[in-house]
Amino acid sequence: MIKVCLVEDEKSLADLIQLNLELDQYDVQCIHNGRVAFQQAQELAKLDLIILDVMLPEVSGLDICKEIRKHGDVPILFLSAKGTTEDRIAGLKLGGNDYLSKPFDLEELAARARALIRRNSGGSPQMVCGNLSYDQVGRVATLSGQTLDLS
After folding, report:
1. pLDDT at 138
2. DSSP state, 45?
3. Percent of the chain topping pLDDT 70
4. In sequence order, what DSSP letters do the residues of 46-84 get, joined into one string?
5. What does the radius of gyration of the chain's CA atoms come to, in whole angstroms?
6. By three-state DSSP, how is residue 142 classified?
7. Are the beta carbons of 74 and 68 closer than 8 angstroms?
8. Are the CB atoms for 91 and 80 separated by under 8 Å?
9. Are β-strands 126-129 and 132-135 bridged in parallel, bridged antiparallel, or unpaired?
10. How far is CA 37 from CA 24, 102, 119, 132, in A?
């Protein structure tokens, strides 16, 4: 299962994003405080995707991104109410892979998340059990190399 961490201090927004991503079969962990995310940077770097608010209590998303980059190359999608060109460029220069300004469309967030995960995995994330495999992004199942027709 694809593991995502959402770092967002606005609980109602975090709940909505988490629900939407879980409907896409992601395993979503939420952190609501910048200091906590900063302290867990090494573990976060092992995940498949981080969705990171820029303006967080105690430690900014930009500082968290810099710390995560010391430990790995996990895709980072910034979310922010700060949407000027300068803000977006700053986030991307510090190591973010994408930047989405608030307010945003949940379907666009999900599409950007899928694209970042796909690009980072060198293809599509796969679930494998014996001869059965399932491409989570392309939603294609195969058994012993043969494509299965599933409803």
Report:
1. 67
2. T
3. 95
4. TSSEEEEESS-SSS-HHHHHHHHHTT----EEEEES--S
5. 16
6. strand
7. yes
8. yes
9. antiparallel
10. 24, 20, 24, 36
Token couple for 14: 């975090």
49 close to 74: Cβ distance less than 8 angstroms: yes
Residue type at position 109: L
The amino acid that residue 51 corresponds to is I
Going by C-beta distance under 8 Å and a sequence separation of 6 or more, which residues neighbour residue 132? 141, 142, 143
| Token pair in block for residue 133 | 């495999």
Q: DSSP 3-state assignment of 134?
A: strand
How many C-beta atoms surround the C-beta of residue 117 within 10 A? 21
Query: Is-contact 31 5, C-beta < 8 A?
Result: yes
β-bridge pairing 140-143 and 132-135? antiparallel
Which positions ≥6 away from 85 have C-beta within 8 Å?
Answer: none
Q: Give the C-alpha separation, 34 to 136, whole Å.
A: 30
Residue 136 DSSP label? T
From CA 75, how far away is CA 87, in angstroms rounded? 18
Model confidence pTM above 0.85: no
For residue range 2-50, list pLDDT tens digits in order: 999 999 999 999 999 999 999 999 999 999 999 999 999 999 999 999 9
Structure tokens at 70: 């010391």
